[in-house]
Amino acid sequence: MQQNEAVVRSTRFAEDAFTLKRIGAFCGRRRQPSTRRVRMWRGTDQNEEGSSWRRQLSKKHTQTPGRPGARKKPMTLDEAAALLVPQYRLLIEPGQVVELRALDVKGNGRPHTEAGFFDSDHLLQMARAALQITNHAKGVYFTLNPLHPDLLARRCNRIDWAGEGELAKDKDVIRRRWLLIDADPVRDPLISSNDEEKAVALYTVGAVRDTCVRARGPTPSWPTAGNGYHLLYRIDLAADDGACVERILRVLAARFNNDQVKIDQKVFNPSRICKLPGTLARKGDSTPTRPHRRANCWRFQADE
Asked: In this structure, what CATH number is given to the domain that contains residue 214?
């Protein structure tokens, strides 16, 4: 228990230090023009994700240095999106086409999927679209591996309602650029994880990373966080990799799975989607013990 509590504290410190905390100050209403100044979002319920971010940000991001008590101007949509673009460039290569996909979108008719395709020259537009829709969707994702450029013609640098046949498929992937390792806490799949469950997931991905480093394997460039934790390893394989990625995940699951955390063995397909940094994981209702959290992206320090 003491070890888990220490991991919880280190997890909170790492995420508190991350730039995306500033994103919590902005939550623009969907389809809102970027030129309009947006007030800090306030949830309609005390358990909504907006309230927790408001508390965290109130002390750090509402005062101007040198002028105690002076309030900064609220961020615009473009200012918030601009904070995400450098992180997207860590994941998306020049010339790469990706799909942005928002699942179970509510508030504009029946729950539905919205999706579109973006190239690496329009990551600001992708970040804007993601921030506008994240409070209406269960989750916002993107395709890790590069897609065929012709898919841009379906929805070019924008998102809209999408049917199952309009989403990216395995046959649309050019090559595999990322190996995704997803450690998810064991819990009701329809609710968010609590701090202790998430800390155990962090401990598990740390063990996976350390094992790979000791075996002289590569160090992951960065993990991403939602309700659990991911490791992303840079690879260069054909889209049809002969089940190589599937076998790796099977071996890792056999070694590291336990009663509290499981390594997801289903994320081997080349068109796999991954939670987009800066967006919310919104499973069930947000409560004090199981809040909705933003997916983060932060680098592991390279070993000396």
From this structure: 3.90.920
135 within 8 A of 102, measured Cβ to Cβ: no
* Structural tokens at position 231: 């490791």
Residue 124 CA to residue 88 CA, distance in Å, equals 9
> Residue 65 belongs to what domain range?
2-297
Distance in angstroms (rounded) separating the CA atoms of residues 262 and 39:
39
Question: What is d(CA 183, CA 208) in angstroms, rounded to the nearest whole number?
Answer: 10
Asked if residue 25 has pLDDT above 70, the reply is no
302 in a domain, yes or no?
Answer: no
Record the pTM. Answer: 0.77
Token pair for residue 29? Answer: 């209403």
CB 25 within 8 A of CB 63: no
- Count of structural domains within the chain: 1
- Report the C-alpha gap between 298 and 102 in whole angstroms: 22
20-58 CB burial, b ≥16 within 10 A, e <16: bbebbbbbbeeeeebeeebebbebeeeebbbbbbbeebe
